[in-house]
Structures are given as structure tokens and as C-alpha cells.
Amino acid sequence: MTTARPVALVTGASSGIGKEAALGLVKAGFDVVGTSRDTSRVTPLDGVTFLDLDVASDDSATAVVKQVIEKFGRIDVLVNNAGVGSIGAAEESSVAQAQAVFDINVFGVLRMVREVLPHMRAQERGRIINLSSVQGFIPAPYMAVYGASKHAIEGYTQSLDHEVREYGIRALVVEPAYTRTGFEANSTQPDLPLEVYAQQRQTFGRMMTAAVEDGDDPAVVAKVIVAAATNPKPKLRYTAGTLAGRASVLRRFAPSGIFDSQIRKMNQLAG
């Protein structure tokens, strides 16, 4: 079967940003396939076909893309939204824990990109939209592993975009700030907690809870994802929300000393 409508594949679409992005793409005229690790627990969404996907599995990524191609005959947009948070000082996370975060946030993206690119190249068009974060371009104290994973996505996407443009494909990043999702509750906690960091980690946790509660609605980010998917002349980077926009301006134009002090102030760090 081949549909005349564009097809979007959205990972991590059962809730939060992914859910709103899937619904937004349906409204924009896409046939949408959403993924979740366990679709038996997913509330159905009008216009969205759900498939089971574990982005940490090569076989699962291969199987999902094959199913989409068999059902629709095409993939025009891939939204790599599935991810996991990680909270704690850098010294408090084991290498194994960091590898587990990277296996989802970074290698999960690589797996999906590798699977969809042959189809996009064959049809000579496509958009790959990778969810980054403001912590992909600014420091992330007490989220160093998570921040490193998003910095990796920024670098990977920039390079990928240059490689695939000649085939009619663009690779883009969307950079939200704090968003009202289950991010904090679903974030991994340090597996090697140290007393020396305990007080500051707790301070950071309270700050994070308040920031998420006051953060952007996921629909704000979803609107930006739809724009990235549909703009005739897309940008490499799309910040999502007012705070993300301010952080981007600060990073680009503030003197290094001022930028450094603002990061420490924002994260309630002494000195």
C-alpha cells in the first residue's frame, strides 16, 4: 500500500511532547505512526497508528520501519522524541548508567535514522527532526549525563544535515526548555550517590520541580515540531518556548563571564 498523504513516524508518542506532536501532525495532514514501548497501555489517538518500539534495540527499530513502509509505502518525517532524563552530579552516575542513557537518547536516534534514510533517499525527500534541549547548548549541572547526550544530538544532527541535503533530506533539531511532562518523575537517579553532593542535588531537585510546573505546555513544543516538519525552507535549529529562546540569545551574545554567572545563578550554585 502507498498513500498519497505524507507519513510521519513519531517515537515516544504515548504522552507529553510526542503525543501532542503526533496530534499536531495529524491536523497538518499527515498519516501518523506513533510508537511506545508498550502500546497495550496507550490511550488511542484519532488518526494515529501505534506500534511497539524499543529504541534501544536494533531489531525493534528495523521491525517498526519495515511495518511503516509495508503499510504506507513511505516515510516523509521522522520525529525522534523518545528519550530519558538523568539527574545527579556527574561523579554520582556509573559508566553503565551513563551508557544506558546514551543507548536511548543518542544511539536510539542513530538506530532510527539509519533505518529511515534508505527510504528517504529513494524517494528523494524527507525530514528528520531530533528532539534536543536547551541543555544541548548550555551547561547542565546536576544533569551532566543528560546534557552530554543532548550535546551529542546537536553535533550529530548538524553533521547529518550537511550529508543528506543533496538527497532532498533535512536533519533538524528542536530545543525545548522546561516542559510540563513527566520528565522529572521518569528521570534516572544516581546509582552511586555521594553525600558531598546530596544537599545541592536536593536543591536542584526542588528547582527542577518548580521549573517543570511553570514550564511550557507540550503543545507549545509540538507546534514547533510541526513547523519544522512543514516549513518550505526549514532552519537547522528551532527553539521552543520563550525560555528556550532567551537561553539561545544568552548563549550566543552574552560575554562568557556573564553567561557563566547566569548559569550558576539559575542553578542556585554557590560562588
UniProtKB/TrEMBL annotation:
Q: Which CDD domains match?
A: 17beta-HSD-like_SDR_c
User: Known InterPro entries for this protein?
Assistant: NAD(P)-bd_dom_sf, SDR_fam, SDR_oxidoreductase
Q: Does the keyword Oxidoreductase apply?
A: yes
Q: Which UniProt keywords apply?
A: Oxidoreductase
Annotated Gene Ontology MF terms? oxidoreductase activity
What Pfam families would the database entry show?
A: adh_short (PF00106)
Q: Which family does it belong to?
A: Belongs to the short-chain dehydrogenases/reductases (SDR) family.
Q: What is this protein called?
A: Oxidoreductase
Organism, as annotated? Antribacter soli
